[in-house]
């Protein structure tokens, strides 16, 4: 085996197991090669790792350099992979017009089925982020078809995960459940605990939606245990938030409260705005259910502040209505908050 | 206004702080670092006021400080130290660890001065709210916005803002326009509004007192500015989340100007994954 092949294999393996510093070391060796083709591959992969690490400016710069090399080499598939990477940087930054343009170029240039499947996944993500679940679902279905045909299990797991999210968004619970199950089976085969935990939590939310609370609770507990194991605080907070909601809906308010408070504490510490807002809103509802209007108002206001920061108008209006509902109707038109008695 | 956790082994200094902050802040005195961390974890502490140099090794205290900053990035840390035993090098080090304010014993701890330092440090705390939201903005534009917030209590002008940033006014204007941000004059107004909104979060404060504190010509001038920029009255800003609401309005303004479309960030377990 040549040095290039070894460096590429080492880098890919390290990236797969999440050891990004080792991946960077291997790809740097590759990018320093005097042979143009492996050097371009090295630059592209360094860009990809930078993107995974959230170093988006670095990722764009590395992709630029890789693109110049790919054009010189006339390697359309590499160019397509790079454009797909650039689109993902823009997508992450919320610059969706440019993301769409990059994915369109990638789609035109892509040759390999694996890459075409990945581009479909990202176009689906873009549609889902913009609220077009129908378009997202169509993209994911194409992605699943392509990736199934070549047994690309890594990408297929992602495609199925996202497909299930789109189906859940369309409230097609049965289809979402099937996709999540298939995704979970693949993730278990690949021992990808992060995906398994995420799927379990999504399944818990689906079951909560259709009022199958004991099953929802069981899945959320498994998910929480897994997030604990892999020390994913972000995931733990999300799981605690879901458990809080399930307990509230089961009228187990004493169980709900500590979980939600813990979720809020973690979300505040990690600056997870949406999660903090959702958990605060949920806690506000728990307090309201207990008749503690002052605390309910406090937590709903906190949720409102977080949603305000994100200009989430729908959620803001919903919470404003909940706050309004905490106030009694008065014939004089004056509205005063009810103070809890006793 | 907020909750101040203190770690001040000297009873004399603790009393000074207590006198200065009385009626303005609620204090949570702590006896050691674990207690301080526990207070930050359990209560909505906004400011940690600490003495780094009581007795133990300074390097140990820096380790604790690092923990506070890592676990609670939203907490504003203010150092209360005597020089000596603290050396200029130690203070420089503390700055590198992200300490947001400094009170020098026997120089800055006259009650009114101490209160001012705490209030200014809290204004910098808003920055923690702002920083993640503007992480992708070009550095000059980001700095311009941060300066308008941290110096909201000063009479900034576009010329002065450019001078603080070390660039010409024309360059500042061009960069703001390119990033889809408001003009320098309007950005200064946005900065003052963000700080005003933070003050409005305190239920005790009236719109008039906020206007006075931030040097608006009058209460009605302040209300007009709120309407013009945020399309809301001060009481509505307070009800919708205060500083967070105004920052959200500014970002919406910027994002519609530079072609971005804002979507609600998803909880990560519900977010579609990308494949590269």
Question: What is the structure about, briefly put?
Answer:
The complex is a heterodimer of chains A (342) and B (276). Chain A is mostly helical.
Any overview of this molecule?
The complex is a heterodimer of chains A (342) and B (276). With 342 residues, chain A is mainly α. Chain A has a domain at 192-342: Serine Threonine Protein Phosphatase 5, Tetratricopeptide repeat. Chain A is 81% helix and 0% strand. Chain A has 17 helices and no strands. Chain A has helices spanning 3-16, 20-31, 36-52, 56-73, 76-93, 96-109, 113-129, 133-149, 153-169, 173-189, 193-209, 213-229, 233-249, 253-270, 273-289, 293-309, 313-325. The longest helix of chain A is centred in the N-terminal third of the chain and has 18 residues, at 56-73. The radius of gyration of chain A is 23 Å and the shape is elongated. Residues 331-342 of chain A have low confidence and may be disordered. Chain B is an alpha/beta fold. The model of chain B has no long low-confidence stretch (mean pLDDT 80). In chain B, helix 6 crosses helix 7 (158-165) and helix 6 (139-150) packs across helix 9. Chain B has helices at residues 11-21, 33-42, 58-71, 88-96, 111-133, 139-150, 158-165, 169-178, 184-200, 207-213, 219-230, 234-239, 243-257; strands at residues 3-7, 26-29, 45-50, 76-81, 101-104. The termini of chain B are far apart. Chain B is globular. Chain B has two domains: 3-126, Rossmann fold (3-Layer(aba) Sandwich), CATH 3.40.50; 134-257, Arc Repressor Mutant, subunit A (Orthogonal Bundle). In chain B, helix 4 links the parallel strand 4 and strand 5. Chains A and B meet through helix 5, helix 7, helix 9, helix 11 and helix 13 of A and helix 5 and helix 13 of B.
């Amino acid at each position: 085996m040549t040095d290039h092949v070894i460096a590429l294999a080492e880098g890919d393996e390290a990236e797969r197991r999440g050891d990004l510093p080792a991946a960077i070391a291997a790809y740097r060796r590759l990018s320093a090669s005097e042979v143009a083709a492996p050097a371009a591959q090295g630059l592209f992969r360094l860009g990809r790792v930078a993107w995974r690490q959230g170093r988006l400016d670095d990722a764009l710069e590395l992709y630029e350099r890789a693109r110049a090399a790919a054009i010189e080499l006339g390697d359309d598939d590499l160019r397509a992979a790079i454009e797909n990477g650039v689109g993902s940087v823009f997508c992450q930054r919320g610059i969706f017009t440019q993301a769409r343009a990059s994915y369109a170029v990638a789609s035109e240039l892509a040759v390999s089925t694996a890459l075409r499947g990945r581009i479909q996944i990202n176009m689906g993500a873009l549609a889902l982020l913009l609220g077009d679940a129908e378009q997202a679902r169509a993209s994911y279905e194409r992605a699943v078809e392509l990736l199934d045909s070549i047994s690309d299990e890594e990408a297929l797991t992602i495609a199925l995960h996202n497909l299930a999210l789109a189906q859940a968004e369309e409230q097609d619970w049965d289809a979402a459940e099937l996709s999540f199950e298939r995704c979970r089976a693949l993730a278990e085969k690949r021992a990808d605990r992060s995906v398994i935990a995420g799927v379990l939590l999504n399944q818990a939310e689906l079951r909560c939606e259709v009022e199958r609370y004991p099953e929802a609770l069981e899945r959320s507990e498994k998910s929480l245990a897994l997030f604990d194991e892999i020390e994913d605080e972000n995931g733990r907070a999300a799981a605690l938030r879901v458990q809080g909601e399930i307990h509230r809906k089961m009228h187990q308010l004493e169980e709900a409260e500590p979980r939600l408070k813990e979720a809020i504490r973690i979300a505040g510490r990690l600056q997870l705005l949406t999660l903090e807002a959702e958990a605060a809103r949920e806690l506000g509802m728990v307090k309201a259910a207990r008749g503690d209007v002052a605390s309910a108002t406090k937590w709903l206001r906190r949720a409102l502040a977080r949603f305000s920061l994100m200009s989430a108008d729908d959620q803001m209006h919903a919470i404003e209505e909940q706050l309004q509902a905490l106030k009694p109707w008065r014939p004089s038109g004056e509205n005063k908050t009810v103070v809890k008695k006793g | 206004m907020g909750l101040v956790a203190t770690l001040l082994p000297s009873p004399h200094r603790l009393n000074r702080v207590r006198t200065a902050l009385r009626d303005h802040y609620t204090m949570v005195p702590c006896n050691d670092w674990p207690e301080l961390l526990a207070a930050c974890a359990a209560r909505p502490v906004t400011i940690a006021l600490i003495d780094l140099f009581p007795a133990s090794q300074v390097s140990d205290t820096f380790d604790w400080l690092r923990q506070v900053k890592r676990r609670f990035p939203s907490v504003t840390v203010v150092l209360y130290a005597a020089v000596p035993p603290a050396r200029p090098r130690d203070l420089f080090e503390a700055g590198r660890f992200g300490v947001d304010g400094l009170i020098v014993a026997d120089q800055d701890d006259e009650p009114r001065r101490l209160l001012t330092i705490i209030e200014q440090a809290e204004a910098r705390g808003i920055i923690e709210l702002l920083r993640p939201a503007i992480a992708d903005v070009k550095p000059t534009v980001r700095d311009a916005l941060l300066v308008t917030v941290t110096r909201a209590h000063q009479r900034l002008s576009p010329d002065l803002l450019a001078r603080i940033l070390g660039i010409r006014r024309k360059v500042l204007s061009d960069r703001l326009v390119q990033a889809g941000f408001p003009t320098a004059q309007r950005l200064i107004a946005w900065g003052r509004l963000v700080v005003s909104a933070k003050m409005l979060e305190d239920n005790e404060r009236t719109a008039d007192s906020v206007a006075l504190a931030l040097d608006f010509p009058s209460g009605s001038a302040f209300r007009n500015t709120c309407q013009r920029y945020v399309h809301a009255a001060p009481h509505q800003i307070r009800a919708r989340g205060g500083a967070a609401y105004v920052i959200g309005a500014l970002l919406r303004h910027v994002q519609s100007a530079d072609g971005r479309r804002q979507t609600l960030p998803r909880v990560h377990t519900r977010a579609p994954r990308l494949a590269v």
